[in-house]
User: Fold this.
Amino acid sequence: MPRAFTPKVVTANALLEGDVVYLTKDDRWTRDLKEAELLTDEAHAELRLIEAERRVSEVVGAYLADMEQGRDGPEPTHFREDFRRTGPSNYFHGKQEERA
Assistant:
């Protein structure tokens, strides 16, 4: 039996910086998960992924990541995505340095 579709966002890595990015409803890449478009329709999610995969001059490794609607926007439902949004864990730089 096929698994029921759950909400998702399109995520990838920025081609030049390597940062985790998310696709917004207005077709921008953002580093802020709260701005990401939460996709609740499977066909629309697949279409958005195809569109993102074509943007090879901007991103690499685009895929659909499981999310849920949080108070301030999409929230990860899996540890991997929660970890990806915080940045590397070896030392503070990038997103982590900005928070410190």
User: Anything to note?
Assistant: The mean pLDDT is 89.
